[in-house]
Amino acid sequence: MHRSSSRAALRMLGAATTLAALLTACGSGTSGGSAHSGHAATPGMTHTATAGSAPVTSPVTSPSGASSGSSSMSGMPGMGDMPGMKGGSHDEGLSDTRDGYRLASATATLPAGIPVRYRFHVTGPGAAPVTDFAVDQTERLHLYAVRTDLTGFQHVHPAMAADGGWTADLAALTPGRWRLYASFTPASGPGAGQDFVLSRTVTVPGRAASVPLPAAAPAVAVDGYTVTVAGDPAGGAARPLTVRFTRGGVPVTGLEPYLGTYAHLTAFHAGDLAFAHLHPATPVNGAHGGPQLAFHAELAKAGDWRLFLQFRAGGTLHTAAVTLHVG
């Protein structure tokens, strides 16, 4: 759901693999100048914005000398992954730096229970702010906010100022530790055409209780829809994955385009919060998506992954959260 040559090759391989698997079984414009969010109500999540509340603004980012945004909070997964540490895999979004590019923010703490603005820069080699981004799924940058026990999820599209500063409007966050991932592709410079996922952590003060991850299950109900995930994913391997939509037992055939596709699917590893973006293989043909969509899934490691599937139907954006076990 990219412009880099490596991702294009993977897409072609994934599409061919998906088509073969489906046949065997028989039976996804630039708008970075304006902010609009893509988060939606998800079962068990409490990050809905308070009506009438103005977002609190985080400090202005300083591209040089920005703070790490890290502080310790025990009892929640991912606590050892501090921004800027070299231990995180470049391909899994667990570092704030890769190949000279950096996700920089002066914000280490965000308030709980009210809408908030998170401000940041993306800097390139030489520490200058990057301002030229390629469009990916109708946006120049996607920002994900994920609570480290995977009970909170937001996907928003920040606005970029002329100086390269980004402002993301987040709905109310619950107390705990959150990791913020920025997904982007530079359109020029040394990293032109390469896909980047960089992340930082913030602390939301308050009484935080870790919630156990729901057990792996193939289907989940959300807003009256049943979403069923099928496939045989394997850690480190490219495999086809299908998602089927029903409502009241009836197949759904009226999925509407969202971000240039019929569904947007991201995944986070339950052990270390590694990031994965699953790419759609089903072409868009008006508001007639469903009942089944095909995805190219490449999950880096075995274990449980929490999938967040966003889809639009009936003019409303829905988010289904599914736990998937990867062998």
Structure, explained:
With 327 residues, the chain is mainly beta. It folds into two domains: 5-28 and 214-326, Macroglobulin (MG2) domain (Immunoglobulin-like), CATH 2.60.40.1930; 34-208, Macroglobulin (MG2) domain (Immunoglobulin-like), CATH 2.60.40. The protein is 6% helix and 37% strand. It is built from one helix and 20 strands. It has one helix at residues 5-25; strands spanning 36-37, 56-57, 97-98, 101-104, 116-123, 142-147, 153-157, 159-160, 165-170, 176-184, 196-204, 219-222, 225-231, 237-247, 250-251, 264-269, 275-280, 292-299, 303-313, 316-326. The strands form three sheets. Strands 12, 13, 14, 15, 16, 17, 18, 19 and 20 form a nine-stranded antiparallel sheet that branches. Strands 2, 3, 4, 5, 8 and 9 form a six-stranded mixed sheet that branches. A hairpin with a 2-residue loop joins strand 12 and strand 13 (225-231). The radius of gyration is 19 Å and the shape is globular. It starts with a helix and ends with a strand. Residues 88-97 have a biased composition (Basic and acidic residues). This is Secreted protein.
Please state the structural category.
mainly beta
The CATH class of the largest domain is Mainly Beta
Number-wise, the strands total: 20
What percent strand?
A: 35-45%
Topology order in helix (H) and strand (E) letters? HEEEEEEEEEEEEEEEEEEEE
The coarse overall form would be globular
**Main sheet characteristics:** 9 strands, antiparallel
N- to C-terminal separation?
Answer: 24 Å
Q: Kindly give the count of domains.
A: 2
**SS summary, helix count:** 1
Keywords: Signal
Biased composition (Basic and acidic residues): 88-97
Biased composition (Low complexity): 28-42, 52-84
Signal peptide: 1-20
